[in-house]
């Protein structure tokens, strides 16, 4: 593993791992709140935001795309909460209504507007372009200490690292609120904890993670990383803190192993070329979840299931 | 008594016979209305719970018992109404309130331990990032011992029976070290030993001068456990000391035809149906 690895594999692997971490962290709380599909919803919803941002600015530069996607995600979150509260229906149904509508709106917009001149298509939205996030300025491990080479790092790396760091910090600071508002929302409210705000903040944080990861690695990884590492981690332990640690380990393992398998797996099997890294990372995370389902030490569920509270 | 802000409501007649609440009432509710969609679940309810007493909120299923409690605490939004805890708005009295939600309202599969749940009762004191002191850790353990669950501290909560879950919730409320204890169906689905243990803890709280208010569904134990009773069926039906208020007439007014004559006889109530 020398110069070629640093040039072509290090940064995509790092970006994939950071994207996985940024999604898996809030994913832990989403699955415990039975809102796992919100990641799915958000990654669909960003499409109209990206199309609108393109129509307004005429470019596919990163910043307008991110702002458009974030705007769409926020609109979707507000709509989901609104539909849920006003319609008094379960969150899953509210999400289903909102994200299919917005995604369909995005498809219509894309169809009606002339985006043929730019790289804005369904394939990019799904798979991202992880393999293209290479570090051409690097000449070997020594480049990590070379300011000129570091300046040529793909901008996605810095963005993804920043987002992952912010989400990690928020999770640590609001740990107690997240835990109690997830476990027992009613009790949390009697303590004066803004439980609705905590839930809203979690969804917004998830949206930021999804949008940042979507830009770099596409929606397949986003959907997989919100659900698979935390769900597998839940089967490894009965402690929330340990679960979050496992989920981060699984997220990084999926990203690294998935990237290596995508790049070298076909060669090892005697084929040529490579397969999509994003797809392979998602598959690895699914395989990890499958293994945890079979071998995880805490896969058996005991005790009474939660029933809806009476009035 | 000087008229407080609550007594203003008396002018439109909503206070009925309860009069202005004594300012030291642990929980005074005026004109509380809560609605799920179009249908009001609780309509224009006044209630005044006494200090140093155990009070029961009783009524048929869907009568708004839990809703009354949750809306009073701000767990669910109220349409109108005023709630005072020891004379101050409930939002400013949170340090004096302990709450035991319905056991079935949470997911017991949540990845946490018994002692961790009890420590949640201390979250208001330790804040977001404060370290739990040794004294606070010992306090949580002590509260667990008071409900007979000391040995269960490191257990995962999903491994507990229904009665054990209820004891853990009570221990969490004890850790809050409050003056008013509000419990939502604390005896629902628990074993007889747990019910006795919970009643003993609640009676001890009363002896210490605390107020206890519980949503209760077992009419046969009202007289044995409680001093004060509040009867509700969306609207307030009656409230007062158990001895004078827990009568066949009031129960009939609350439950309507849902309570058979034989059941009323079995309760051996004071005062016959008029």
Write structural notes for this entry.
The complex is a heterodimer of chains A (311) and B (274). With 311 residues, chain A is mainly alpha-helical. Helices cover 74% and strands 0% of the residues of chain A. The longest helix of chain A is centred in the N-terminal third of the chain and has 30 residues, at 3-32. Chain A starts with a helix and ends in a 16-residue tail after the last helix. Chain B is 31% helix and 22% strand. Chain B has 274 residues and is an alpha/beta fold. The longest helix of chain B has 16 residues, at 192-207. Chain B is built from ten helices and ten strands. Chain B has helices at residues 65-73, 114-119, 123-126, 134-146, 162-175, 192-207, 222-225, 242-245, 248-255, 261-266; strands spanning 27-36, 39-49, 54-58, 80-85, 88-89, 97-100, 180-184, 211-215, 228-233, 235-241. In chain B, helix 5 packs parallel to helix 6. Classes of the chains: A mainly alpha (311), B alpha/beta (274). Chains A and B meet through helix 8, helix 9 and helix 12 of A and helix 1, helix 3 and helix 5 of B.
Question: How would you classify the quaternary structure?
Answer: heterodimer
Question: How many beta-strand elements of chain A?
Answer: 0
Q: How much strand of chain B?
A: 15-25%
Q: What CATH first level of the domain at 2-217 in chain A would be assigned? A: Mainly Alpha
What characteristic shape of chain A results from the CA principal axes? Answer: globular
Q: Give the helices and strands of chain A as they follow along the chain.
A: HHHHHHHHHHHHH
What radius of gyration of chain A results from the CA coordinates? 20 Å
Query: If strands are numbered along the chain, what order do they take across the biggest sheet of chain B?
Result: 6-7-8-3-9-10
